[in-house]
């Protein structure tokens, strides 16, 4: 019952293909989602968000943050160590990762800060002026422009 066909939605709508793609991606995603590294998403204001990712053991030079194709990609590659260490127990995972976050329309990343083993990404939703609601003033009948009727004499 997990297979849904969105073909009728594509045929009957215009401009909603991104929503259908998102629904298709969510429904076909593997049940076993990667859990490394752990992260939080918080709403810091009406149109502002913060993603905090636990990146203990990585320096800012080993982290990459990119926005492409409407998605935010965060990845890390550990620099190779010159000396081989012998661990008695290794509980801190310094493995490479790539985490992807789908961004809604008009959401952009405003900054990234690495502090105390956490990578904080600040996002803001900026609604374009054309999409903001605007009030249309209704003119009164007395101030509206008069419609001039054409007579046969003025047409010739």
How would you characterize this protein structure?
This protein is of the alpha+beta class and 156 residues long. The protein has two domains: 1-32, no CATH class; 34-127, Sandwich (Immunoglobulin-like), CATH 2.60.40.790. It has three helices and seven strands; from the N terminus they run ααβββββββα. The chain has helices at residues 7-12, 17-28, 152-155; strands at residues 39-45, 48-54, 63-68, 71-76, 97-102, 107-115, 118-125. The strands form two sheets. A four-stranded antiparallel β-sheet has the order 1-2-7-6, with no helix packed on it. The termini are far apart. The model has no long low-confidence stretch (mean pLDDT 79).
